[in-house]
Amino acid sequence: MTDLETEITFKALSSLGYGGTFRETLDSFRLDNGDALTSDQRQLLDEEITRLQAEYDAQDYARNRLTEYPTIEECVHAILDDDLDALQVLRQAVKDKYPKP
Predict the structure, then answer these.
(1) 9 and 27 co-located in one domain
(2) Which pTM was predicted?
(3) Rounded mean pLDDT of 59-80?
(4) Within this chain, do residues 8 and 52 fall inside the same structural domain, yes or no?
C-alpha cells in the first residue's frame, strides 16, 4: 500500500468504527477481538475507501493551487505596496490553470 492508500484505509476503518490492527495489507486486518472482517464488513469498508478516495481526488485542484499561489510574504508585500491588482492577476492565473471541477 502507498502512504495515501494507508491513510485513506485508516480513515475508512475509523469512520466505520472498526478498531483493530493490520500490518502490510488490509487482508491482514484483525478487529480488536481478533476476528477478521466479515464479507459484509469488508464490502462496507471497500465502499468507504472508494468514497474517501473520491473525496480526496475531488480536491486535487485545491492541492495544486496551494503549491502555486503567491506566498504569504508576497501577499503582505502586495498589500503594503498597494499592488493588490497584480496579486489578483497572479491568483487568477492559478485558478484558471487549476479550475474547480
Answers:
(1) yes
(2) 0.73
(3) 94
(4) yes
